[in-house]
């Protein structure tokens, strides 16, 4: 249960601080600032809980690790449940903070939710959004599988993973808001409802497809 609790708390922190930065201070921080908020959240949690659970805090990462043969089916299920619970709790916490502030409510802030079409900053279509999320997630998860594969890079794994999450956000934020994480997307969508909840399927399915691609690439190039 320590591992699952760590994943819950880690996903809570990632969702609260990443989505919170986008919702509360997005206009001030801009794309780069929000990207670093997500990336630094990963760095912090990697060194806080990495020795407990490996700091997946993302169902797509857990799927990639499972498909690469580094994780049991039982742990995969436990991790994913914990990650979704953590993200949901973070979204409700963020909504409470926003509703207690003079920010116009959760609908006005967007709660860091992902979107396509009218919900995309650049009007990206659903098909293109799906492709973007697959590619961004594949790059992210492939990097994780690579950097955590040997002892030589284990000491810097948290920093590398955090910087990789930052750079995929830099491209992805204007397009979809960048998911690459089904749990992080589901929490805010559940609380917001409406269009965000109707579109969240894409931000669950596409990252899982991307993680599968990453696991295949890792196995191919590892040989």
Number of strands: 0
The CATH class label is Mainly Alpha
What about the largest sheet?
A: none
Class inferred from helices and paired strands: mainly alpha
Can you give a write-up of this model?
By secondary structure, the chain is an all-alpha fold. The chain has a single domain, classed as Up-down Bundle (Glycerol uptake facilitator protein), CATH 1.20.1080.10. It contains 9 helices and no strands. The protein has helices at 2-53, 59-67, 73-99, 106-109, 126-147, 151-154, 157-176, 182-192, 194-222. Helix 5 crosses helix 9 (194-222). The longest helix is centred in the N-terminal third of the chain and has 52 residues, at 2-53. The chain is globular and about 50 Å long.
Quick overview:
By secondary structure, the chain is mainly alpha-helical. It has helices at 2-53, 59-67, 73-99, 106-109, 126-147, 151-154, 157-176, 182-192, 194-222.
Topology of this protein?
Elements: H1 2-53, H2 59-67, H3 73-99, H4 106-109, H5 126-147, H6 151-154, H7 157-176, H8 182-192, H9 194-222
Helix pairs in contact: 1-3, 1-7, 1-8, 2-3, 2-5, 2-9, 3-8, 5-7, 5-9, 8-9
